[in-house]
Specification:
Strand 2 and strand 3 form a beta hairpin. The two termini are about 35 Å apart. This protein has about 375 residues and is mainly alpha-helical. The chain has a five-stranded mixed beta sheet with strand order 1-5-4-3-2. The protein folds into three domains: about 100 residues, Cytochrome b5-like heme/steroid binding domain (Flavocytochrome B2, Chain A, domain 1, Roll), CATH 3.10.120; about 60 residues, no CATH class; about 120 residues, no CATH class. Helix content is about 45%, strand content about 5%.
Length: about 375
Amino acid sequence: MPGRTLPTFPQADVAAHNTAKSCYVTIGTKVYDVTDFLEDHPGGADLILQFAGKDVKEAMEDPISHAHSEAAWEMLDDYLVGFMATEKVMQAVKESDDPFAVLPMEPSKKGMAELEKADHDAAEDVRARKQVHAAGEEAENSNKALYSTGMSSEADLNKETDYTSDYKRHKFLDLNKPLLPQVWFGGFSKEFYLEQVHRPRHYKGGESAPLFGNFLEPLSKTPWWIVPTLWLPPVIFGTIISAQHLNPMSVPAQPRGDHSPLPPSWHPPLPPMDRLRLVMPPTLFAILATPFWYLAHTVFFYDFWAATCVYCGGIFGYICYDMTHYFLHHKNLPSYYRELKKYHLQHHFMDYENGFGVTSRFWDRIFGTELGPPPVPKVLKAQ
């Protein structure tokens, strides 16, 4: 059996892996090393660490916190490192006529029969992963904001999608074809669109989604470094030239770099882990930024250089916003930014209808869309 290529750990060894440096969790007799996933967990590493070295089945099924989707359970399988004989299994082995059909794990077909004969609960421990309860329609109907995404973590969006079966199942978008024409002519209801666009779909090999299918396609893809390389020099130049010509009292306070100078924006229907679609393409930015140039010079009509300075400050705020957004998705950051990352992941994977702030919660507080801390599973209270 392929499973026999993985080791069978003593219970004490599994329990000892209970720190951030080495974190094991179990589902019945299966052992998972989730150390590398700790920082990406939307609820934070601490929530997983409370179960380090222990069984997490009940916690992951808990509807009070977030009953995990089938995609999340499948993602967990990627971290399988071995097996562990539970107390019930060990007791059943003592009573078995053929203990070597059970140990080392996993049991053969004969071994499962031995476990059933000795103790049905021991056999249930072995089958625990196959019998998990994934979040389905009943969870989705009870709390749509929490369950309609079908996601539980950042890793859900890194699972490659079978394009054909996804289209047959959901009747949404054919991922083999350009997406924008399908969205434009699809006639989808708002509810159906929001439900589907937040489901985990990932292109093979991390490729970007095809939007136009023509000469416009390259204009929609932007590596992160393009933004500071292209826009910082004119911002710096404009600021220096303005400072040489204006009276400091004529310039209002510039937007700080810790939040976007604009209200929170809605994400486009693209995978949040697409590295080439997380910052704004220069062509689109130039089109959108032009009206703000005229707005600045309309408001500060009395001083050309004051208007230019204000405009440069706004562009600098945008640069900070875009860079923060990208690095929250793709880089390990200092402690303050890890909190921002956790908050932003909550928006993507727990409640996409709130928590739009990327560089701070400022505008979420203004617009009443601030997310609270992730709910704590009820099972924790019993421990």
